[in-house]
Amino acid sequence: MSSALKLTVLDQSPVHPVSAGSEVSNAGMMSIELAKACDTLGYDRFWVAEHHNSPQFAGPSPEILITAIASVTQNMRVGSGGVMLNHYSPFKVAEVFNMLCALFPDRIDLGIGRAPGGDGLATSALAWPNPPQDGSNYPTQAATLKALLEGQIPTEHPWGTLHISPKHESFPEMWMLGSSGGSAELAGQLGMNLALARFISPDHCKPEIFDAYSRAWDAAGHTATPKRMLAIGAFCAETQEQAELLAGTAIYRKMMNALGDRNHLLSPEDVQDQRVSFSASQHAEYDHLLKGYTVGTPDQCKAEIEALATSFATDEIAIVTVTYDFKARLESYRLLMAG
Q: Among 220, 232, 253, 196, which residue's Cα sits nearest to residue 321?
């Protein structure tokens, strides 16, 4: 990989069966093991996602995984990709990430998003006894969170006298997450870095989103240089055939989730068995989703990643790899960096 291009891991803590390539049965522990390996491989950051009420992903509390991962790694920045801010008080999130920065100075990233990270039942349970947020307060929540962390709350604000402990000189690097451009201008206005989740919606994630972000940043008069990251789904193996087989788990998951079916992850072999009975439209959908991922050998993946980085004018690519087998997930990240 080009020395100018930085690779980040965006880990969703997929739930692997114990028999599927790991002696560790806990998805959180697998994320920690993956992070330890990626720290030695040369990845620049390791971000963890937030999901609720999911049989597929086991990452409901990014701040806990961040603490555990930062404790056993040395080289990477560690952060959230991201905290689903609609569920939480900006003050509480500021307190949590301020403490993380005190424990791990200059290593913590705070990525935030407006998606629920779960279904309606989980959203309702997280908000109880209050009604769930509908997203309309997200811009104010994001602005307030940033002001709290940077000590920029106006004295006349109702929270102007809030004290966030402990006092120190390290701040989290702040990022806003988006997938189709809805958050780009807000991130630019607030002066947050922007991470685009192409792996969620490749058809709607275009380079023009970063252009809109840059225009909003400039219009707001920020003097710092904004950072931009592109997050992609990637599956790397020794052969194209092996890589495409690995990707089947994630492709089938996305197809079933669109139908409201959120069962456990299927093995690549079981996915291929399911494909036998696909309709013509399902075959076309499967092939279309496959094209939205970066899938292949190390050389093939390297070439596509560098092409995407050029197209989106970014020097940082985040890699999301959801496999049935933990060893295959780990090996994919190893091969990507080796490429």
A: 232
Q: Which residues share a beta bridge with 325?
A: none
107 within 8 A of 74, measured Cβ to Cβ: no
* Residue 308 included in any domain: yes
pTM above 0.85, yes or no: yes
Domain for residue 216, yes or no?
A: yes
**Could you tell me the CATH number of the domain that includes residue 228?**
3.20.20.30
Does residue 261 lie within any of the structural domains?
no
Non-local CB neighbours of 120 within 8 Å, separated by 6+ positions = 132
Structure tokens at 83: 């905290």
In a domain, 231, yes or no: yes
pLDDT for 131-189, tens place per residue?
A: 999 889 999 999 999 999 999 998 888 898 999 999 998 999 999 999 877 899 999 99
> For residue range 86-112, what is the model confidence (pLDDT) as tens digits?
999 999 999 999 999 999 999 999 999
Evaluate whether 196 touches 179 at the Cβ level (below 8 Å).
yes
Residue 55, φ and ψ in degrees, nearest 5: -80, -5
Q: Which two tokens stand for residue 311?
A: 């197209």
Domain boundaries, position 27:
6-239+296-338
Residue 264: other Cβ atoms inside 10 A: 13
Number of domains forming the structure of the chain: 1
Measuring CA to CA, which residue among 68, 6, 5, 3 is closest to residue 32? 68
